[in-house]
Amino acid sequence: MRRVLAGVLATTVLAGLVTLAAHASPRAAADEPVVVVSSTFDDGTAQGWTSRAGEAVAPSTAVAHGGTHSLAVTGREQSWQGPTLNLLEKAQKGIRYDLSVWVRLAAGEAPTQARLSVERRTGGTASYDQVVGDTAVTADGWANLRGSYTLAADVEFLATYVELSSATASLHIDDFSLSHTPLPPIQTDLPSLKDVLADHFAVGAAVGNAELLNNHGQLLAKHFDSITPGNTLKWDATEPTEGAFRFTDAEALVSWAKANGAAVRGHTLVWHQQTPAWVFKDAAGNDMTATPENKALLLARLEAHIRGVVGHFGDDIPVWDVVNEVIDENQADGLRRSKWFEITGLDYLRTAFRVAREVAPDAELVINDYNTNVPAKRDKLHDLVVRLRAEGVPIDAVGHQMHVNVQWPSVAETEAMLAKFVPLGIDQQITEMDVSIYTDDSQSYPTPPAEVLLAQAYRYRDFFELYKKYSANISSVTLWGLADDNTWLDSFPVTRKDHPLLFDTRLQAKDAYWGVVDPGRIGGPTSTTTTTTTTTTTTTVPPATCAVAYAIGSQWQGGFQGEVRVTNRGNAPVTAWTLAWSFADGQRVTQLWGGVHTQTGSAVSVRNASWNSTIAPGGSVSFGFLGSWTGANGKPTAFTLNGVGCQS
Ligand code: 9MR
């Protein structure tokens, strides 16, 4: 099974509720968790939980994590058997849910491992998405399985379930919860990365299909003009069994890209990971050894795979990571000892590029690798590219993954990496960049320290400055993820929350974003993850030289989104501003972007963010906020800018 989302996110564990909450409202207030399902079994029923296939589930008082009951599961005969709950009417597409369940083995059972997964079916085809991977469980205590899941497809069946590595062990589960925390709107008033970088190179993000939807999709569309499917074009996703191609997920991404004017980077045709076992079985079904027959069979499979995948998408995918991670600088010849290499030598590389060029003559063909800044690896990659191109192998570009961190590598070493390939006259692409906040495996921050996030912002600034310097040689820069809510670094090299991207877990711009867009704004108060105080100097404006437009963008039970535009009608710039008003109906601002707010009673005061402190004559600034209300939600009618009344 493929891991869909890493799950080390803060989940609100809610115990004690028995009821199934009504359908989650996407208009619930941002940042307050909404519990969609809570199963405590304390009413002595199974609360909708059933067995997957014939095993018995029943409320039990033998053990309980909280309250009086758990759910006992007995009579299992297969490892995949276990308790399951139908979520079809409960979970919505495009919402990131937090799932949590407590698991304990029945008395006397030997320790084993438990997993939490989701089964979904579309058009009769089942997919199994793992939410929480193997977790040690015993009969002596409760283990918590907790992770996140976003449904990205239309489904006719949706259920979560717990399974064990042991085929027969009996178990208990308790205090299951399915909840989600609504996201604030994305910041629409920020410069788009793709506009800021338009003169230099395309800017991309690697995504899963869940990130094409709702707020994630809006953020992706606003900032990126290239997208890379993180997993859906890999061999295990596209040809899980020989000749049976599956393109549904990748097709959804390609359609989205077309509709939103983004290019697609195809990733990846040949890799030593995420390749199904059948690829390396010989004609008799045994593991291949290096024989001429097996070499011919493997190359034929490779050719069929590339014809199937590249041929399917044709012009819709104009660039392919044809081969991924084939260099091992610790080998004298620099070549990774993968199954591909062991059985075919260099011929898998020759075949892959030749066939890709035949099937997609106009596509750009890339050799992609990580740690290409490391001099030994860089040089081995360089020499391989030179050698193969001399033979006529059609390699058009070198992909530098750039999985880096806040300290490593140096900009100088990275520049040497780019410079090394310039004499080849070959295109270069940054294909998988992220900047981990960690510099060794022992670190783990419950909350990322402000100084580390600042250091990260300066790293982004420095790397993007370098890329711009080489922009004649670099056609695209792709980040390996959209926002910090979903990054492979949450589970690599150890499990801990990382924050390696430009947008935070609530999809708001980080200082890292400003590092790319406008380094002068690093450390400004718009950042949601650092606290920096700005000193404001007040410029007094003459009377009635401002105009304020206050609008309620949307309103729902108890909450609303406000949008405010302040225009300078005077002849002099306003170099720092504070806008004040009073709410008549007891409303409260709960979150604000594009400024810094305080509220005392009904009096609201919003001062500028660091980056919008100046309002030119005739110019305006905007900010938005989320608010709460009860009873009435009248619009304020009187505003002051720096203490002076405005038109409204
Ligand atoms: O982001 C991908 C993650 O979801 C997979 O679990 C992982 C392991 O196969 O692969 C990740 O992407 C990798 C990419 O395809 C190649 N370079 C390294 C990336 C991070 O592991």
UniProtKB/TrEMBL annotation:
Q: Which GO terms describe its molecular function?
A: endo-1,4-beta-xylanase activity; polysaccharide binding
GH10 domain boundaries: 187-519
Query: SMART domains of this UniProt entry?
Result: CBD_II, Glyco_10
* UniProt entry keywords in alphabetical sequence: Carbohydrate metabolism, Glycosidase, Hydrolase, Polysaccharide degradation, Repeat, Signal, Xylan degradation
Q: Please tell me which top-level EC class this enzyme sits in.
A: hydrolase
Single GO BP term: xylan catabolic process
Signal peptide position in this chain?
A: 1-24
The record lists the catalysed reaction(s) as: Endohydrolysis of (1->4)-beta-D-xylosidic linkages in xylans
InterPro entries recorded: CBD2, CBM2/CBM3_carb-bd_dom_sf, CBM2_carb-bd_dom_sf, CBM2_CS, CenC_carb-bd, Galactose-bd-like_sf, GH, GH10
Keyword Glycoprotein in annotation: no
Domain called CBM2: residue spans: 539-648
Which Enzyme Commission number(s) are listed?
A: 3.2.1.8
Q: Does Signal count among this protein's keywords?
A: yes
Q: Which family does it belong to?
A: Belongs to the glycosyl hydrolase 10 (cellulase F) family.
Protein known as: Beta-xylanase
Recorded source organism is Saccharothrix texasensis
